[in-house]
Structure to design on (205 residues):
């Protein structure tokens, strides 16, 4: 490993540690019991910032999991914890919930970070926005407070609408910007060019 690569890994790990502290150790970690929008920021930081930085900081030698499995597992974790009954349970088992969002992020980003860029990556990222878009649209436009835990907030419906809108915008940029970047790289000099023929290897996606 070159000195530059070593420094890049250290910087990624430092960024991951800072993000984890902001998400769970800073005042934001206390606000998430009072405001849904703070709760949403916490989970987005864990999934879309801390998780990919951890993967960039720690080289992985084990064979990667299949991308479809990673996508399904991470999506199930995100949607599952937003089911009202499980959400209320998660507020009592909060560290477990936080850890599961970090695991979901690690699963989601691993097929992207641990492999060379390929044409399936933009599709993978685009498809990942769809369940999050549906969830955020529901929270924003349903017109009722979904989670009783936040009924004590000054304006619970407004808080929920802000949380839904934040998720919508954040996920769009967090997933679609890398998709565009990968597409540009593949189309540029030295990129993969037109979609290559796939091998029969089960991990080829």
């Amino acid at each position: 490993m070159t000195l530059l690569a070593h420094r890049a890994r250290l910087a990624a790990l430092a960024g991951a540690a800072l993000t984890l502290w902001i998400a769970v150790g800073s005042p934001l970690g206390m606000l998430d019991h009072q405001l849904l929008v703070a709760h949403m920021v916490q989970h987005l930081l864990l999934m879309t910032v801390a998780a990919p930085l951890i993967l960039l900081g720690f080289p992985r030698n084990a064979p990667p999991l299949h991308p479809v499995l990673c996508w399904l597992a991470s999506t199930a974790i995100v949607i599952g914890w937003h089911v009202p009954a499980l959400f209320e349970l998660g507020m009592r088992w909060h560290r477990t919930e936080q850890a599961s969002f970090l695991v979901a992020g690690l699963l989601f980003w691993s097929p992207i970070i641990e492999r060379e860029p390929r044409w399936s990556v933009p599709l993978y990222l685009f498809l990942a926005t769809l369940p999050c878009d549906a969830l955020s649209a529901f929270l924003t436009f349903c017109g009722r407070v979904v989670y009783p835990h936040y009924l004590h907030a000054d304006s619970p419906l407004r808080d929920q609408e802000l949380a839904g809108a934040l998720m919508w915008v954040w996920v769009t940029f967090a997933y679609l910007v890398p998709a565009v970047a990968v597409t540009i790289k593949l189309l540029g000099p030295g990129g993969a060019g037109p979609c290559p023929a796939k091998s029969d290897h089960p991990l080829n996606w």
